[in-house]
């Protein structure tokens, strides 16, 4: 069970956004081949980061390994109990999603880990994700928060050409499909600065089930090579396709990550199938696709009674169902709130009764 060792009050104190640079330490070491590695530790004003290194952002330029962190930010949250990396994270859990974070990615990954998130989702898709910055963010967290690689669960994705910016692909765009997958996995390992990926997702099914299975077979090679520990798929809304992948795969999918919204009938049949097959269901668009329900007076009233926000009530609902929602917040206070509800559930607290779950399902329009 994931339990932090320090209370939240000290975290909020560190969020004075106007700290001055107070320590500058340059440590230079000779790297293999005679290169120099320069590491900087500076205080930072996180409200405007990342900017130039003199103003303290976590730098993630591929030509440099410099990392800049708020010194006050390093003695507040301490490591959570490690997740068993040979299996999926125990539930209930939350994932920090890094899509569309752009230049803030490294800082936000650090902030999320500092708040208590331990599960980070990204993709080898420069169009929407900054995977190298995710690598910098978690590496700095390891250094500054006393974490280890085994404390952090890194999930990334292979994205086909259809989902890439044609001018910025992470693999040779005219390579054979199988080699695109291999090159993408190699790029992810390099970008994330890790020797293994906890879960590799196929970002979406390929145009045909034949191509999907071809990609899956290459993804299985990464499992056999020890580069990846679990496989899954995202944006798969066809029960038939998911069943086929599961039946044909040598390495079975452990994750299905989909939008949780009315258009897909909230994946009711797929979620039942996931329960049947012991597949972890992850949700995204969990808040943005359900704004009407979250804005209703009945929803807000229940959230207030539970000492939650409408958003964290939604996360409590999903985790009570046994699912793992993604949170993509950029607000550190919201990160704290998200982690708090996760921890309440992990401690065994029953936040929502069966009747309350039925009420929320009705407000959302989730089939019973």
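^ Assign residues to that structure.
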């Amino acid at each position: 069970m994931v339990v932090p060792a320090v209370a939240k009050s000290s975290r909020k104190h560190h969020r004075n956004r106007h700290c001055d640079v107070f320590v500058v330490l340059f440590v230079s070491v000779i790297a293999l081949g005679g290169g120099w590695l320069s590491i900087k530790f500076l205080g930072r004003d996180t409200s405007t980061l990342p900017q130039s290194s003199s103003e303290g952002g976590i730098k993630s330029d591929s030509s440099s390994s410099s990392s800049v962190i708020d010194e006050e930010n390093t003695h507040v949250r301490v490591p959570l109990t490690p997740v068993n990396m040979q299996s999926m994270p125990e539930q209930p859990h939350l994932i920090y999603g890094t899509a569309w974070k752009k230049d803030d990615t490294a800082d936000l990954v650090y902030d999320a880990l500092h708040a208590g998130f331990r599960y980070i989702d990204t993709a080898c898709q420069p169009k929407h994700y900054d995977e190298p910055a995710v690598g910098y963010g978690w590496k700095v967290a390891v250094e500054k928060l006393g974490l280890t690689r085994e404390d952090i669960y890194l999930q990334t994705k292979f994205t086909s050409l259809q989902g890439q910016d044609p001018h910025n692909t992470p693999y040779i765009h005219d390579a054979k499909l199988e080699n695109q997958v291999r090159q993408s996995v190699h790029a992810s390992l390099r970008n994330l600065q890790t020797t293994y990926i906890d879960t590799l997702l196929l970002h979406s099914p390929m145009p045909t089930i034949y191509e999907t299975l071809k990609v899956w077979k290459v993804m299985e090679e990464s499992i056999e090579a020890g580069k990846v520990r679990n496989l899954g798929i995202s944006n798969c809304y066809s029960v038939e396709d998911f069943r086929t992948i599961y039946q044909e795969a040598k390495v079975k999918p452990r994750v299905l990550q989909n939008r949780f919204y009315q258009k897909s009938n909230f994946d009711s049949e797929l979620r039942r199938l996931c329960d049947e097959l012991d597949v972890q269901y992850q949700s995204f668009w969990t808040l943005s696709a359900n704004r009407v329900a979250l804005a209703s007076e009945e929803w807000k009233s229940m959230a207030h009674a539970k000492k939650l926000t409408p958003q964290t009530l939604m996360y409590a609902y999903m985790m009570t169902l046994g699912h793992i929602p993604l949170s993509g917040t950029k607000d550190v206070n919201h990160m704290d709130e998200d982690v708090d509800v996760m921890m309440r559930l992990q401690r065994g607290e029953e936040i929502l009764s069966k009747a309350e779950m039925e009420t929320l399902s009705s407000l959302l329009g989730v089939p019973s």
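The chain has one domain: 81-364.
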